[in-house]
Design a protein that fits this description.
The protein is mainly beta and 145 residues long. Helix content is 3%, strand content 48%. The strands form two sheets. Strands 1, 2, 4, 6, 7, 8 and 9 form a seven-stranded mixed sheet that branches. It has a two-stranded parallel ribbon with strand order 3-5.
């Protein structure tokens, strides 16, 4: 499995700033394996999303600042969304199928078990040949710029 985190590249466009393998190998005699991702203190989340996103359409998903929503999204085979951003942090996990998340000039292909953290930046979803199902925990943020 892989984990990605989206941030801004030197050109100001969205890009995967973290890309790493999630390792869940069991050692002999062990019954559980844990690989922890990053920790985001509430102070970081409460700081808001920096910047004015002019490269994409705003998509309101009706999650107020500080609120959480657990949501599931099913993309049909070949689905192509518009390039958009939301005023949210989206903790996404692919649970079935595959998709591409287009970030600026970069494309990240996601498979079951892969995760991607969207931080209020522009992106586009493209459903794979069998479609894709994504589970997300979404936290409403305020834009500071």
């Amino acid at each position: 499995m892989k984990h990605y985190q989206v941030g801004r590249g030197p050109d100001g466009k969205s890009v995967a700033v973290v890309a790493r393998e999630v390792v869940l190998d069991l050692a002999p005699g062990e019954t559980v394996a844990v690989d922890r991702l990053d920790f985001w203190p509430c102070a970081v989340l409460d700081a808001g999303i920096a910047g004015n996103v002019a490269d994409s359409e705003f998509y309101r998903i009706a999650v107020d600042e500080g609120d959480l929503r657990w949501t599931f999204m099913r993309m049909a085979p070949g689905h192509v969304s518009h390039v958009h951003h939301t005023d949210t942090w989206d903790f996404n996990v692919v649970i079935a199928g595959d998709c591409i998340c287009r970030l600026g000039a970069q494309e990240v292909r996601l498979f079951p078990g892969d995760t991607i953290l969207m931080t209020g930046l522009e992106h586009q979803w493209l459903g794979g040949p069998e479609g894709c199902t994504v589970a997300s925990v979404v936290r409403g943020m305020r834009r500071t710029g």
